[in-house]
Amino acid sequence: MAKDYLIGIDIGSFFLKGILFETDENEHIVPISLSKLPVDGIINGEIQDMESLRKSIETLIENLKQESQKKFKNPEIIVGYSTNALNITEENFTVEFSKRTEIRENELRNIKKNVIKKYTDEGKIILDSNFVKFHIDEKRVKNPVSFFAEKSLTTTLNVVWVDENAFSLLINVLKDIVYTSEIPIYDSTLSNSYIITTPNDRNVGITVIDFGYNSCRIIIFKDGIPKLFYTFPYGMKYVLKDISNVLKVSEKEAHRLLEEEGSCSRETKTMKKVNFQLLTGSGYSYVPLSLLNKIIFARVREIISRLNGELSKIGYERTFEVGALQGGIVLTGGGSKIRNIEITIKELMGENFRKSSIVSFDSFKNVPDELVKDPEFQTVFGLIERYRIDLLEENLYEKSRETRSESPKRNKSSKKTTTAFKTFFKKITGGEEEDAL
To answer: Which of 28, 117, 316, 424 sits CB 3.0–4.6 Å from 365 for a disulfide?
Structure first.
């Protein structure tokens, strides 16, 4: 990695989540401290107060430094933020040859560079790109590397992108915090989706549901790539509003009740009573736990039922493209932590369901089990992994430029470089094979 210390920050609509990482001598990334705190400056999923958000981020970074008790300067900061404007398109690109030419990895790298430049010139930011088709002289091949082309190489890339304005406010927030000219910013849900699913999941077809505070964000994978992005405008805030309105408590107190006491259950036999602070702040009252659970259950069931209807419609209208969701559903985000929610989801959406968990540890080391299973912090690992892959791509591109200007003799590091190339090109051609937990 470029620096010894990395800070990953996921900016949500309700909480900021951050982890401080240290890279060891073997380039493994080790979490050494974490922090979570309420976010200020974001309302209904949109940045409304840049100064308040900046102060929240600065507080989070300071908490991470103090908890770690490490002394360091200018760590690399990687940021995740969810937009509601992800676009997925296919981009065709053709390279023509004047003579018989062997296709090398360098051709694929240059194609990606050219596509990125095209999108940048159009005011777009590419968040993810994968090769999905290759044609050499109009004949389909799975992987063109080492084949010979007489006339042309045509590629098709699946591109996930946002308009450059999607992160403009966030860049202004971060410019006084980050000391580099370029700030690595990624979409939180997209980054998380890769680390909580396996290549086989994404190939067969799987639906990732990010049950957030402001909305549910859905990404459907098929044939190894993101096929569809959809925002469902209902999230945890509606559950909290119901608790607040019925019990006459603040949203903060409603969140505490949801997190510490409540569950998604229609069970009425529970006799326990739960204390809560009145909205006026003048004292405490209590509510039967069965009533609290019924409030949660009613709203969660409504949200999941309506979401299931939307996904069924999408699955019917775009069966050929996204399949019948045969890979099942992975639930992530803060809403997935609601107790007993899996029973309601299985009842409405089927048994082919699981809660999110990190399924790849190739880059990370000494990750506590509670972080592996915590959907709020999983996203931070996803952000770091996307940054690592981007850095690998940049390093390989620079190495290839150096190699072209040197003699073809192999050096001591050739084996290590070859391994890195193989790993990277398995990823960009959609041929990666990772071990699932």
So the answer is: 28
